Amino acid sequence: MPLHPHVVKRFDELKAIRTHLHTCPEIGTETAGTVAFITSKLDEYGLSYEAIGENSVLAKVDGKAPGKTVAFRGDMDGLVTQEETGLPYASQTDGRMHACGHDGHTTTMLALAQYLSTYRDFDGTILLLFQSGEEGYGGAKKVIEDGLFEKYSIDLMFGYHNWPGEDPDKIIVHQGPCMASEDRFDIKVTGRSGHASMPHGCIEPFAAVADMIKAAQTIIPRKVSAHDKAVISITQVHGGSAYNIIPDDVMIRGNVRTVDGGVQDCIESSLATVVDGVAKTYGVEAEFTYYRKHPVLMNSTPELAIAAAERVVGKENVLTNVLPAMGSEDYAFFMEHTKGCFVWVGNGENSPLLHNSKYDFNDEAMLTAASLFIELIHDVM
Ligand SMILES: [Zn+2]
Ligand SMILES: [Zn+2]
Question: Which positions in this protein are listed as binding Mn(2+) (predicted)?
Answer without folding.
Answer: 100, 102, 135, 161, 355
